[in-house]
Amino acid sequence: MKNWLKNKIARSYELLGKISRQRQALVNTVVVLTYHGVIPSDMMYNGRHFFEYRNVVTTEEFDRQMTHLKNYYTPISVNDFQNLPGQNTDKPYVVVTFDDGFENNYLYAFPILKKHGITGHFFLTTNFMGSRKLLWTEEVTYRVLHARSSALTLHINGEPIHISLSSEKRREAASIALRKQLKLQSRRVIEEVLEELRKATPELNSVELPRTRYQFMSWEQAREMHREGMVLGSHTTDHFLLNNLNEQEVRETLTRSKQQLETELKAPCTVFSYPNGERENFSQRDEKILDELGFQYAFTQIPGFNPVHTLTNKKFDIYRINISHFMTGPVFHAVITGLWKY
Ligand SMILES: [Zn+2]
Question: Considering only CA atoms, which of 221, 217, 255, 263 is closest in space to residue 237?
Fold first, then answer.
């Protein structure tokens, strides 16, 4: 469906009062939003593949979204979770989170959050701080979208897979399919396939990635946000999904990223968000390890809402709504009530 049509339909929901009725049903519920990037509209895209920007919101839209949250929700932080039961409120609670740790979060989202007095939660990929390396998931997308050749052959566990890159649509579909396959593999297999993909697309090795999209924030920037009351947490050291790792590797990445955050910020790190975060990307094994290491809450990417009374039993299983570039205006209003399933 075209974006203008979605907006028109969502606007009619709004006029009919459907969105506000749905929102009313979320009183005593915590709505958690996931963002990845915020970039001024004139710095977005720049003739590149729009697909790379699908999870990036413009600063203008982000500002409007935060105004909406201030007006119709009660923005809170994870530190408020324990005090929520028994409170008398007439609005749903909302928590604003960011995954991965991009510098654009600091440059463009942080000032808007401060202006509105909203606490942002930033989950950092700690080995990427200050760098412009690609997360493995993004490297797969990047190389498949930008490869010079019109076809690729890769091997997963010795099995050849042939990828057609003859059109933009095919490249997008191929990047989704390849990521999906790799997300189920072990770290070793993913690294092998990445190496093969790098060898097949050497023309991309020296390309400079656009800073606004791919630069990770520095520890200095993270410290400033922490001083200003933002919450910073772990998103692992290298963005391998926990299901890509064996138990020892999970322990290592969680322990190390927590230590890095605590050393750099001189404060306890007690919150985590699962890379990819869907049901198949973590298990009870991982929840147990998080608990042992002293984490208090972990955020998934399972779409849904968190009634206040469920927070104590589901502390490593908090549901979130992902906000993409396409959820503008009334569509955003509808999506975050669950009226519109994206
Ligand atoms: Zn991530």
Answer: 255
Q: Over 70: is that where the pLDDT of 330 sits?
A: yes
CA of 135 to the centre of ligand 1 (A): 8
326 three-state secondary structure? coil
Quick: pLDDT tens for 166-176.
Answer: 999 999 999 99
Q: What is the pLDDT of residues 269-327, one digit of tens each?
A: 999 999 999 999 999 999 999 999 999 999 999 999 999 999 999 999 999 999 999 99
Locate the domains of the chain by residue range: 3-132+216-335, 136-204
CA of 239 from ligand 1 middle (Å) equals 6
Rg of the Cα atoms in the chain: 20
| pTM of structure | 0.95
Which two structure tokens, joined as six digits, stand for 306? Answer: 């968190």
Confidence of residue 46 (pLDDT cuts 50, 70, 90): low
141 torsion bin: left (phi>0), alpha (psi -120 to 50), beta (else)? alpha
C-alpha of residue 173 to centroid of ligand 1, in Å: 20
Q: How far is the CA of 100 from the centre of ligand 1 (A)?
A: 5
CATH 3.20.20.370 fits 3-132+216-335, yes or no: yes
Closest CA relative to residue 32, chosen from 220, 224, 314: 314
Structure tokens at 149: 């050749």
Token pair recorded at residue 63: 């500002």
Compute, in angstroms, the gap from residue 322 CA to the centroid of ligand 1. Answer: 11
- The alpha helices in the chain, defined as continuous H runs, are 3-15, 18-24, 59-72, 103-104, 110-116, 136-146, 168-182, 187-200, 211-214, 219-227, 247-265, 284-292, 329-335
